[in-house]
Amino acid sequence: MGQSPLLISTLLLSFLLLISSTNAHNITKILAKHPEFSTFNHYLSVTHLAAEINRRQTITVLALDNPTMTAILDKHFSIFTLKNVLSLHVLVDYFGTKKLHQITDGTTLASSMFQATGTAAGTSGYVNITNLKEGKVGFGAENNDGHFHSFYVKSVEEFPYNVSVLQISQAITSADAEAPTPGPGDFNLTSIMAKQGCKAFADLLRASKALATFDDNVAGGLTVFCPTDNAVNGFLPKYKNLTGNQKVALLLYHGVPVYESLQMLRSNNGAMNTLATEGANKYDFTVQNDGEDVNLETKVVTATIVGTLIDQDPYVVYKVNKVLLPRELFKASLAPAESPKPAKKKKAADSEANSPAADGPADDSADQKAADDNSAASGLNSKFIMVLLGLFMGVLAL
Ligand SMILES: *[C@@H]1O[C@H](CO)[C@@H](O)[C@H](O)[C@H]1NC(C)=O
Ligand SMILES: *[C@@H]1O[C@H](CO)[C@@H](O)[C@H](O)[C@H]1NC(C)=O
Ligand SMILES: *[C@@H]1O[C@H](CO)[C@@H](O)[C@H](O)[C@H]1NC(C)=O
Ligand SMILES: *[C@@H]1O[C@H](CO)[C@@H](O)[C@H](O)[C@H]1NC(C)=O
Ligand SMILES: *[C@@H]1O[C@H](CO)[C@@H](O)[C@H](O)[C@H]1NC(C)=O
């Protein structure tokens, strides 16, 4: 009887592990086994569609081989338009080869990721799948011209009923998906910052390889917090002290790889990952609302959003009144008003003195020795008092 809760929790844990591991699919990995789709695979990653595909439970990817992708790339779409074109080739339903040939009434409209993004006008994000003569299956945009240009070729990989990858012969053409996507294509992060009071931060970004990471995230969603010129100028001496990698991490810490409108920030208190977050390096901060203010707390500083430079889903840039200092790079205890906890304080001072950053080795060791002697002395003193007390009691008892 006493063991059953343990048994149940063990079973529960293994069950949870099981579903979390079977759930995860990785379209990049699946396609990597098929080099004839390497260009398609590459652009799924570049446009951030791969991540969106992996997030979904049920998905069908209509893969295009390298020559077909070359034909698309020859049209020189912006990366944002290319994302729309490719997202029309990702259906948010499961179509294995079998189901494809057994469509009720021989024709159906399947919703694509292009439809799901809300970018598509009306129902232009639906894909018409129709069973044709001699077992052929045609794929067309919802408003196709009555005949199909793209056909089922073969099944690439099927994991029923989660992920299906099917090859089709041609790209599904859609004027809507191919329409120039306004906005993002013209977006120049550093020049917008420079024009609107974040020139110092823009200058740091321009000189850093961190900028490429910001640019890469614009299409898939990006929120940037740029500190004011005053804040950055005051911080420059500390910035110059950082190593090359630390500088990059500090800059990346000011970006978040999703679009967060002010309303979203206002309604969501909690931890937020940044572009610097990677594996064990958390580099996160906490969003904390205070009335109308949105504060970003890093445990080293608390910065407040003081303005919006541009807000154009999928990207937004806010101005903040302080440089965000990650606790991975800066000491959390800069606040001078610490409550007096002698034992703890002593420990902190010790570890600081032991760290290689401590100044003047000669003086320091002397100080350290003095400190050690002091603490030894105070330890002795209290023991001495205890012994005296004991003696006193003993004497009384006699
Ligand atoms: C998916 O697989 C690719 C290639 O194997 C790998 O680089 C990437 O990190 C994987 N993504 C996730 C989310 O596991
Ligand atoms: C799909 O397209 C074909 C050809 O234009 C059309 O006949 C059919 O009705 C369409 N299917 C649906 C479900 O709209
Ligand atoms: C599909 O996902 C479910 C969990 O949602 C999992 O139990 C199942 O094993 C997966 N199937 C395949 C073929 O990966
Ligand atoms: C943004 O503008 C700056 C000049 O203001 C220019 O040097 C840079 O190449 C532009 N970046 C992009 C991605 O167009
Ligand atoms: C930069 O590093 C040096 C040596 O470690 C130190 O003395 C100095 O105080 C640091 N400056 C700033 C602004 O942190």
Fold and architecture overview:
The protein is an alpha+beta fold. The protein folds into 2 domains: 24-178, FAS1 domain (Roll); 187-320, FAS1 domain (Roll). It contains 17 helices and 14 strands. The protein has helices spanning 4-23, 27-32, 38-46, 49-55, 66-73, 79-87, 97-100, 113-117, 175-178, 189-195, 199-206, 210-217, 229-241, 244-252, 262-267, 342-354, 361-397; strands at 59-63, 90-91, 107-111, 126-131, 137-141, 150-159, 163-168, 222-227, 255-256, 270-272, 285-290, 293-297, 302-312, 315-320. The strands form 2 sheets. The protein has a 7-stranded mixed sheet with strand order 2-1-7-6-5-4-3. A 7-stranded mixed sheet has the order 9-8-14-13-12-11-10. A hairpin with a 2-residue loop joins strand 11 and strand 12 (293-297). Helix 10 packs antiparallel against helix 11. It is elongated. The two termini are 57 Å apart. The model is unreliable at 5-22 and 334-396 (pLDDT under 50). The structure holds 2-acetamido-2-deoxy-beta-D-glucopyranose (5 copies). The site of one 2-acetamido-2-deoxy-beta-D-glucopyranose has 4 residues, from helix 13.
Give the overall shape: elongated
* Quaternary structure annotation: single chain
Number of domains: 2
Number of distinct helices? 17
Bound molecules: 2-acetamido-2-deoxy-beta-D-glucopyranose
**Architecture (CATH level 2) name of the largest domain:** Roll
Beta content comes to 15-25%
Can you summarize the main beta sheet?
Answer: 7 strands, mixed
Largest beta sheet: what is the strand line-up?
2-1-7-6-5-4-3
What integer value in Å does the Rg equal?
A: 30 Å
CATH topology of the largest domain: FAS1 domain
Uncertain spans: 5-22, 334-396
